[in-house]
From TrEMBL:
Keywords: Isomerase. Pfam families: AP_endonuc_2. It comes from the Archaea. This is Sugar phosphate isomerase/epimerase. GO terms for molecular function: isomerase activity. InterPro entries: IolE/XylAMocC-like (IPR050312), Xyl_isomerase-like_sf (IPR036237), Xyl_isomerase-like_TIM-brl (IPR013022). The keyword Isomerase applies. Residues 23-246 form the Xylose isomerase-like TIM barrel domain.
Length: 253
């Protein structure tokens, strides 16, 4: 199975353009789709869906902070709103984008986190929406020699949106995680992180072994390889140039 390419639109959050224009730029850069993080809740879903269809773009998923999770921000969405947005743009993938490090600091915190994620996943499944959890580096705290993330996954059926760059920065092996959780990973963030500063960097210039990740990803059932850069100096240039690196180094095409 060959993964399709998408861009996490958080990469383009500082570009002064409306959502329709951003989507046109993404399509022109050659991506197969997008993953939403912001802008979508403030847009007109029908107009956005029509733009996506016009441009031939699919939606890999939606990053959504949900009010029922630990430490939720006051602006977090309700479950109903998440389902509404997923249906509006034609995706079944909802992604929890971040939980604070305190959610993974010990066994009790992990159990509480896993319980909240499981309850949310069950509620969304009733609406045919699949819940994914997106890692950063804080999930790789050790609890009795095991990553907190591994304990969360052992206690839930939630899928993992593997952020390969953050995993590598935390000292984990993204390729090994991809192998171990092959049946629970359909979305992979291909992002690179500078090993010294912890800041996102251009693909191939940080701590992520693109070639090793690509070898494992191409043999997997991953559906979407999603490019992200948290703080590009020139977002639109990075969008186009790193797509070529993504396809050449990771997808081998």
């Amino acid at each position: 199975m060959t993964a399709r390419t998408a861009i996490q639109l958080y990469t383009l959050r500082d570009v002064e353009a409306d959502l329709e224009t951003l989507l046109e730029r993404v399509a022109a850069a050659g991506y197969d789709g997008v993953e939403f993080a912001s802008r979508l809740p403030e847009s007109d879903p029908e107009t956005t869906a029509a733009t996506l269809e016009r441009l031939g773009l699919s939606v890999a998923g939606i990053h959504a902070a949900v009010g029922s999770l630990p430490g939720a921000h006051p602006s977090a969405m309700s479950r109903a709103r998440v389902v509404e947005l997923c249906r509006a743009v034609g995706t079944t993938n909802a992604v929890v984008p971040y939980l604070d490090a305190a959610c993974f600091e010990d066994e009790a915190a992990v159990a509480e986190t896993a319980s909240a994620l499981s309850a949310l996943a069950e509620a969304l499944a009733d609406a045919d929406v699949r819940l994914h959890y997106h890692n950063h580096d804080q999930e790789f705290q050790r609890i009795d020699g095991e990553y907190a993330l591994e304990r969360v996954l052992a206690q839930t059926d939630v899928e993992l949106e593997l952020d390969a760059g953050w995993a590598a920065y935390a000292g984990a092996d993204p390729a090994a995680l991809l192998d171990r959780y092959a049946d629970r990973i359909s979305l992979v963030h291909v992002k690179d992180v500078d090993a010294e500063t912890g800041r996102a960097t251009r693909l191939g210039t940080g701590c992520l072994d693109l070639d090793r990740l690509g070898e494992r990803l191409r043999d997997s059932a991953v559906e979407w390889a999603i490019y992200e850069h948290d703080c590009p100096e020139t977002p639109l240039d990075a969008t186009a140039e790193d797509r070529h690196r993504l396809e050449a180094r990771v997808l081998d095409r």
